[in-house]
Design a protein that fits this description.
UDP-N-acetylmuramoyl-L-alanine:D-glutamate ligase, twelve-stranded mixed beta sheet, 519 residues, Rossmann fold, seven-stranded parallel beta sheet, alpha/beta, single chain
């Protein structure tokens, strides 16, 4: 997995490298600037003869920009440094590099110029360059750009040039991916030491473009995350986790799943969840549905065993079904509860009883989450593993919070809820974040906007249930299921286009998703 750091964690790494390992800040800054230029050339080719504007702030991010400008000039580029501050405001290592640049620029080197930007009129004097380097804010920024900086950001975005961000695009908050007001839209972001959380979640990915991590000589032991850790999952991580299929396997030895789902109003959700569990590799899937839709479900599916349960007048699970469902829950290796169950007072009680009294690993989704919202304490009393799979709206009901705020702070929201419910929490969205109670969180790296379609979440719940039934740990099964679900969506998008994906298309591409990973 690729470690993801917050701004505070990265600042701690910088301090440790300088204070404990005695690596001079000037060395780190030099390595950072050189790395940016090398990545620029790797992506855009030779910069010789190209006109590059390097927009610098007064802090260390600007210091990286001064180093970049020097290396650009040495490689034959025409480098214009635009300093959005008075030179006397620049301090420390950044000041040292600015002074070097000033000695190199002007008449001694007409290919390198330093201009202090005081107003928008000064910016408009610069003809559209071949490339722009954004070295204004860096990872320490957390606010809304204003004044000359906002003007510069809007001007950069209007140029149509190739834009490279140093560490993170100015205006993007490194720890959350939040953008307030304006941010530089980069095609390439070269980040120092380790990737940042805000480059992968929130609005961050829209502004970062391609992200490259640069080694600037901070020791690996320093960069190892401590405390609350976050990582970006990769294909290799999933390949290592997938359960092997023994030669002597039989249908009851490779995972038994009970899916409690459906209602008179919603039959599709039950079908999708049950078949996703089978496609995940479970050997036997028992689908419990209200008795009135048993025949419908039997016609819709052939590989799944359909179990009729006592129903209410509205065609939902009745309280009288609890004993049967608990009996079948004891048979299963994992239980999927909630897809398409509809809202009903009796049905909510069924949900709470199964959460409270069921002793098997449980995936709670959709209407199951809504039922839990009426009595959240039930989840905290469980001893068996619990995986909750809400989107931000469902999570808002569970924690009595604001969906917009939770969506804005996805990482913290997932972690806090996982700790509160003592469960694995899969916060669905772009991207999906999977967290466990100790603060560990995984950001998914697959999926696409075409998967924003009804029923896709039912497929995910069944997929996680199938993996959990095969003996995977709850956290591993959750983020593995999320990754494969996203990969299936990507394969479906490659075939049909993002606009036309159906949940059944995602279901149909689960097998190819496994094949693409397990090769």
């Amino acid at each position: 997995m690729i470690p993801l750091l917050t701004a505070e964690q990265m600042q701690r790494c910088d301090r440790t490298a300088i204070e404990t390992f005695r690596i001079p800040g000037l060395v780190l800054m030099e390595n950072a600037g050189r790395a940016v230029v090398e990545e620029m050339e790797r992506v855009a080719g030779s910069l010789s003869g190209k006109r590059v504007l390097v927009c610098c702030g007064k802090g260390n991010n600007g210091g990286d920009g001064f180093v970049i400008a020097r290396h650009l000039a040495n490689r034959g580029a025409l480098a214009d440094v635009l300093l959005l501050a008075h030179r006397t405001e620049v301090r420390g290592d950044a000041r040292a590099n600015l002074e070097v640049l000033l000695r190199m620029s002007g008449g001694k080197n007409p290919a390198l110029k330093v201009t202090e930007i005081r107003n928008a009129g000064t910016l408009r004097r610069f003809v559209r360059p071949d490339a722009i380097v954004d070295a204004m804010f860096g990872t320490g920024f957390d606010g809304e750009p204003s004044g000359m900086y906002r003007t510069a950001i809007e001007w950069i975005n209007a140029q149509g040039a190739f834009v490279v961000a140093v560490d993170i695009p100015s205006g993007v908050v490194a720890s959350t991916g939040v953008v307030r007001g304006a941010a530089v839209c980069a095609q390439l972001t070269v980040t120092m030491g380790a990737a940042k959380i805000g480059q992968c979640i929130g609005a961050g990915p829209e502004y970062c473009g391609t992200v490259r991590v640069a080694d600037i000589s901070i020791p690996r032991t320093v960069l190892a995350p401590r405390g609350k850790t976050a990582s970006l999952v990769e294909e290799g991580d999933i390949r290592q986790l997938l359960p092997a299929r023994p030669r002597r396997a039989h249908k009851y030895s490779v995972g038994k799943v009970l899916v409690v789902a459906g209602s008179r109003q919603y039959t599709g959700a039950a079908f999708l969840a049950a078949h996703a569990a089978l496609r995940a590799g479970a050997g036997a899937v028992l689908l419990a549905v209200p008795a009135g839709i048993r025949q419908i479900m039997a016609r819709k599916t052939t590989e799944v065993i359909v179990l009729p349960a006592e129903e209410t007048a509205e065609g939902t699970f009745a309280l009288g079904s609890v004993d049967l469902l608990l009996e079948k829950s004891a048979w299963a290796d994992a239980v999927v509860l909630g897809p398409g169950m509809s809202r009903n007072a009796e049905t909510d009680e069924v949900i709470l009883r199964l959460i409270q009294d069921g002793g098997r690993p449980l995936i709670l989704d959709a209407d199951g989450l809504t039922g839990l919202a009426s009595s959240p304490a039930v989840a905290r009393k469980r001893s068996a593993p619990l995986v909750l799979t809400p989107h931000s709206g469902e999570l808002a009901r569970l924690v009595r919070g604001d969906a917009v705020l939770l969506e804005t702070h996805r990482m913290d929201a997932a972690r806090d809820a996982a700790r509160s419910f003592k469960s694995v929490l899969v916060l669905k969205g772009a991207p999906t974040v999977t967290a466990r109670p100790d603060g560990m969180a995984v950001v998914n790296s697959t999926g696409n906007p075409g998967m924003a379609t009804i029923g896709a979440g039912d497929v995910l719940a069944g997929l996680i249930g199938g993996l959990l039934a095969q003996g995977m740990e709850a956290f591993d099964a959750a983020y593995t299921g999320v990754f494969l679900h996203g990969r299936a969506g990507d394969l479906a998008a490659a075939r049909y286009g993002k606009r036309s994906i159906l949940a059944s298309d995602v279901l149909d591409h689960i097998a190819p998703a496994f094949l693409s990973v397990d090769k």
